Structures are given as C-alpha cells and as structure tokens.
C-alpha cells in the first residue's frame, strides 16, 4: 500500500501549517502581518492550540486511561506505563507550559487583565499548570518507575497524581467557561 504524505506526525503538522498559510494568502490576511492585531490573533491561536493539546490530554487521562487501567491485564500494563504514559505526560507538561506562556502574552497584548471571567480562567489555568508540573509529574515519575520508589511510595504517588488530575479536570470546566465567555458583556 502506498504511504500517504501525512501518515507521519511531523509531515501532518507541516502540511497543516502549510494549508493554514494557504488560507492566510487566499483570505488576504497576509496584508495584516505588520498589524498588531494580526500578531495578537496569532498568539491567541497558539494559545488555543496548546490549550486543546493540554486539556485533550487531561481528558484522555481522566476519561480513558485511568478508568481503563483496571481492565488491562497485568502483563500488558508495562506498555502503558513505560511507553504511552511517559510520552503523553511529556506533551501534557509542555502543552500546559505553552498554554500559560501564550495566554500571558495574549492577555498582555490584548490588555484584557480587567476582564473578570478571563482573569478567573487564567488563575484557574495557573493553578492547573502548577498541579501538572509540581504534583502530577513528580508523582507520575514515581508511579511509573521513572524514578526509584518502593511499592508503597508508588501506590501513594499514583493516587496523588490521580487526585490532582481529577482536581484539574474539575477546574477545567470553570476555566474554559471563563476563557470562552470573554466576549460577553460584564455585568459590573
């Protein structure tokens, strides 16, 4: 069977960016490259893309991986713990960092610090990113055996990572509301 150009991840991403550039050209938006509004849009686009990756992985862990683990035979669990989870956690961590970075740039660029729902969403996002880097990741390293820990410590670490992940899932709902409702008029 002939291999398609977008079968690999990196070619698919490159083709996607190329198609976006074609849309930019066709739409005539390239005329605005020197305009600050275009760059504000671009930063927001990267912020949203990073956020989709971050929250998508958060939901994958909470809706798919955690509930499925008890159903997986013990001899198959190393495939998750040694291959899939570390890779997913890599993108999870860096998507969180990228989302926060481009969110701060977007808020600064748009001077939207006084938008209460966005500010609340940003605060919740910062709490969630803190949990990713300083609670979930260190505990997952123990639980997955990426750092040395005895069986009891691994069990406790897995529970702590799961609880922090559930907490982030809970916070993601009001965080997303705050971000998406930014265009609505404020009542105060």
Structural class: mainly alpha
Report the span from N to C terminus: 62 Å
User: How confident is the prediction overall: mean pLDDT?
Assistant: 93
* Unreliably modeled segments: none
Order of helices and strands: HHHHH
Give the overall form: flat
Structural description of this entry:
This protein is an all-alpha fold and 188 residues long. The chain folds into two domains: 1-33; 34-183, no CATH class. Helix content is 77%, strand content 0%. The chain contains five helices and no strands. The chain has helices spanning 9-27, 36-68, 77-110, 116-143, 151-180. Helix 2 crosses helix 5 (151-180) and helix 4 (116-143) runs antiparallel to helix 5. The longest helix has 34 residues, at 77-110. It is flat. It starts with 8 loop residues before the first helix and ends in an 8-residue tail after the last helix. The mean pLDDT is 93.
Explain the layout of strands and helices.
Layout: H1 9-27, H2 36-68, H3 77-110, H4 116-143, H5 151-180
Helix pairs in contact: 2-3, 2-5, 3-4, 4-5
Q: Any key phrases for this structure?
A:
188 residues, mainly alpha, 5 helices
The gist of it:
The protein is mostly helical and 188 residues long. The chain folds into two domains: 1-33; 34-183, no CATH class.
């Amino acid at each position: 069977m002939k291999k398609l150009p977008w079968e690999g991840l990196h070619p698919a991403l490159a083709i996607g960016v190329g198609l976006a550039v074609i849309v930019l050209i066709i739409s005539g938006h390239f005329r605005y490259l020197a305009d600050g509004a275009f760059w504000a849009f671009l930063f927001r686009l990267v912020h949203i893309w990073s956020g989709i990756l971050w929250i998508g992985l958060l939901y994958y862990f909470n809706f798919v991986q955690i509930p499925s683990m008890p159903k997986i035979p013990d001899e198959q669990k190393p495939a998750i713990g040694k291959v899939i989870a570390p890779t997913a956690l890599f993108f999870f961590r860096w998507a969180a960092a990228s989302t926060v970075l481009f969110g701060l740039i977007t808020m600064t660029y748009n001077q939207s610090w006084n938008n209460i729902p966005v500010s609340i969403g940003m605060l919740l996002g910062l709490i969630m990113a803190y949990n990713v880097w300083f609670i979930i990741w260190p505990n997952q390293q123990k639980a997955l055996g990426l750092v040395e820990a005895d069986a009891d410590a691994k069990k406790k670490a897995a529970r702590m990572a799961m609880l922090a992940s559930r907490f982030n899932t809970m916070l993601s709902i009001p965080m997303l509301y705050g971000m998406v409702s930014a265009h609505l008029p404020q009542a105060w």
